[in-house]
Amino acid sequence: MPGKQSNIKPQPKKKETPTKEPQDSCSCLICKESLKENGDYIKCSLCNNYAHYDCLGLPKQMALFLKTSANAFPCFCPPSRPKLEKYITLFERVDIIETCIYLFIYLFIYLFIYSIYIPPFSEDPGRRTVIQFKNNNNE
């Protein structure tokens, strides 16, 4: 009906702020203790879980370097390492297959070019080149 206003007010949207720090309810992946704000913890690059430096056996300087490297040097927790090894094995297999394909293509092109170009024995195509061996015996 025209002119009738609704009593329902639109709810304000919540602002989503990207959190780099873990929530209050986060706990260490290894020891299960809660993580303190500005604590000594690091995020796994594969599973996105957090763990204390000490629980991972990382020296504090190394952990701070990994934390500030902007994912240039990823950190992996122990539960993620088997997944990582599978990825590495897969990448090694892909690398071997690519190498085999490149070698096959190179060999194919080389043999194709070699089969087309057969150098002539002499500059005169009608003349046959005869190879004679000298006999060093003066007989």
Overview of the structural elements:
With 139 residues, the protein is mainly α. The chain is 35% helix and 4% strand. A two-stranded antiparallel sheet has the order 1-2. The longest helix has 36 residues, at 81-116. The N and C termini lie far apart (129 Å). This is Zinc finger PHD-type domain-containing protein. It comes from Micrurus spixii. The chain crosses the membrane at residues 100-118.
Quick summary:
With 139 residues, this protein is mainly α.
The counted number of beta strands is 2
Average pLDDT level: 72
Radius of gyration: 36 Å
Largest sheet descriptor: 2 strands, antiparallel
Order of helices and strands: EEHHH
Alpha plus pi helix count: 3
Fraction of residues in β-strands = under 5%
- Give the overall form: elongated
Distance between the termini: 129 Å
Give unreliable regions as ranges: none
The helix content, as a percent range, equals 25-40%
Structural class: mainly alpha
Cross-sheet strand order for the largest sheet: 1-2
Q: Which helices and strands occur, and which strands form pairs?
A:
Elements: E1 41-43, E2 50-52, H1 53-56, H2 60-68, H3 81-116
Antiparallel strand pairs: 1-2
Keywords: Membrane, Transmembrane, Transmembrane helix
Protein name: Zinc finger PHD-type domain-containing protein
Region (Disordered): 1-24
Keywords:
mainly alpha; 4% strand; 139 residues
